[in-house]
Amino acid sequence: MQRTKNTPNAGPPTEPNSVVRIACLPRGFAKGAANEMHRNCGYGTPQKYDPTFKGPIHDRSCTDIICCILLVVAIVGYVIVGIVAWTHGDPRKVIYPTDSRGQFCGQLGTPNENKPFLFYFNIIKCASPLVLLEFHCPTKQICVNKCPDQYLTYQNARRQTKDFEYYKQFCVPGFNNPQKSLPKVLQDGDCPSMITPSKPLAHRCLPAINTKKGVIMVGNDTTFEDGMGKRRNVTELVEGAKKANVVLEARQLAMKIFEDYTVSWYWIIIGLVIAMVFSLIFVVLLRFLAGIMIWVMIVLVILVLGYGIIHCYMEYARLKGEDGSDVSLKDLGFQTDLRVYLHLRQTWLAFMIILCIMEVIIILLLIFLRKRILIAIALIKEASRAIGYIMTSLVFPLCTFFLVCLCIAYWASTAVFLSTSNEAVYKVFNETSECDYAGQTCIPETFNMTNITKECPDARCLFAFYGGVTAYHKYLIVFQIYNAFMFFWLANFVIALGQVTLAGAFASYYWAFKKPDDMPAFPLFSSFGRALRYHTGSMAFGSLILAIVQIIRVLLEYLDHRLKAAENKFAKFLLTCLKCCFWCLEKFIKFLNRNAYIMIAIYGTNFCTSAKNAFFLLMRNIIRVTVLDKVTDFLLFLGKLLIVGSVGILAFFFFTQRIDVVRDTAPPLNYYWVPILTVIMGSYLIAHGFFSVYAMCVDTLFLCFCEDLERNDGSPERPYYMSPELSEILLKGSLESSKSADSQG
User: What is the pTM of this model?
Assistant: First the structure.
């Protein structure tokens, strides 16, 4: 059907003698739409026809000004917290070990710059429960340039000059008196009573433990002399080393992971570049071949999952009969080297079952949603046309990603400086006898002049931990919570800014009666300017609500971690229910915020009004929301899954050196899963960034479509703004949905 500008009571004016195609209302659709309106009449008032409405309103005013002011004040406070943290913090406390006087080992510009390792005078003392309570071993600790490699006692070392020269490097600096008696040496804390073969672990000297035929040995011995005339079993050293190693294993794992990143970072970047190229090619092809690309994507996802199932079965069959392959995952426990799990048949069986379940679910969804997929493809085609007219929207997520990275960097650096802004705290430790002063704070410089040394001759004033008693140190936990809260608020604000900007640009496309002639010259930049100028407060309001829910979830996770050892089942049940409720609340708020931002971009109303109007509009079109929007999200998710799966498989074969052509090129790694997981997660973020443009475009077009149906009826006087191709599919699908709902009613 055709109409010209001379049509009486025509819709949006066009240029003289121009001809515009419109889609007429299909027969029966008006009745179906009326029935749906009647069912949903309790959700607000439908939009009325307005001949002056032409998309995003330009004559608008600032919204939610109070929230805007609150955001500015909060940012100023955040900057002040960061400055205070950077003034007091010292990240070296995280990297370098500290001796009993609070001095760093191996730090340039300090007396111990050539002594990178921490040596414990009596590692057996580290088996004390005090280690778990105060995270400090109650024995003297000094920095040394290397760990001991032999058994030697002080009594034996003082008899020979050569042995004593070797031994005194494990004494306090400046000690050079072999004639000093052992009791006096131990009382003054000059030297350890004995040294044992040790190896550095996370810059700490720990016993060199090994096993031969199931027997635990340190060096080549199962017993040792403790320097006090007694023979002791090496298991006592092992227990002490375990307690001293409470945090060291995690640090050692972190160091190995860091080493893997240092040798594979450029390959990781190449993998991420490949993911970006794949995503860009996919999105560009989607612009011109949306229908074909969607079906090709569906088939490829099924084939990739099918290949995964076959590969898992082949590995499962290959391991049959091999030694140790039948060990269960439960018996093996957690291992930092994930390659161990790949030698178990149960691992591949679990992978195969998971992939089979995913394959069956996807196939069943495709079978039952085959008609809806055709409608969703039409919506994606329209989104492709919109993106084709606003190509800058494809690179806009890079701006959002950059701003989010800035938020992460500021949060992480502030958190590190806050956690290291404590002062050195010294406490009284007593190694041999009971002492009433044990555990009390002390001052090393004046400790020997106090009464404590008289009442407790064995007492030592040793570095315990980093803390403080000032008002600043007392409120450090409050600063950390504020740091996390501001990170959530600012990150959500940046995401909201991106959503409002894209929504405004795509709404300009939809409500252009002649596409693209009626579109503004720079729709994306115009939308970005409107968002910042008028709606900073509304975006701050929406992101504030979401940030509050997210920080509550973090606190609930912290409480759950603290209550893991508790026996109160009711408290655990209540905490689990709260975590579940707040998880659901966060998902709902994200959904509501997203649609509220679209209404803000179109109408320029405040956040609460926009959220209410968006919610009522969706409820008045709940059938279409379920049928179209979610099916489209499912198809876009398959696209992300295809890109991530393809790049992940390529990374797996490369880093495990299974590609003959580049086998010698792959770097040697401690854990090959480190770069693989990094590439997979990075690929997902990249694919999500590109597809988020499509998702936002689809959501915006869908809301505009629902508004279009309420404002107009497809007649020459009130024509639809949707394109003829979109109206042909969507109106037909809406008619079928309405008939289905009527028959069920």
Answer: 0.70
